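WARN retry 2 of 3 for item q-0093 after timeout on previous attempt; input resubmitted unchanged.
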Amino acid sequence: MSKVLVFVTGIILSILGLIIFVPNSNASGPEAYEELYWAFGGCLLSLTGILVIIVALLWPSKSIDLDSSEIGDAISIPPPVISDKD
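OK item q-0093 returned
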């Protein structure tokens, strides 16, 4: 996965978590525990998105050297084996 894709995934998770959290955060009454579970899940989803964003920002990017002019360890190919079985 690319760094940009991970960053965008973290933003989407954070926004989705906030969408779940906000309508369920002001629960009241005897049936409020179910809405509070949804609010807690939305909070965890949002915090997971924030953690993914932080990891994406702090993760070192890989530098790929595409210079083909340098030849590393050259591998020599042995000559073919010829057998005379007549």
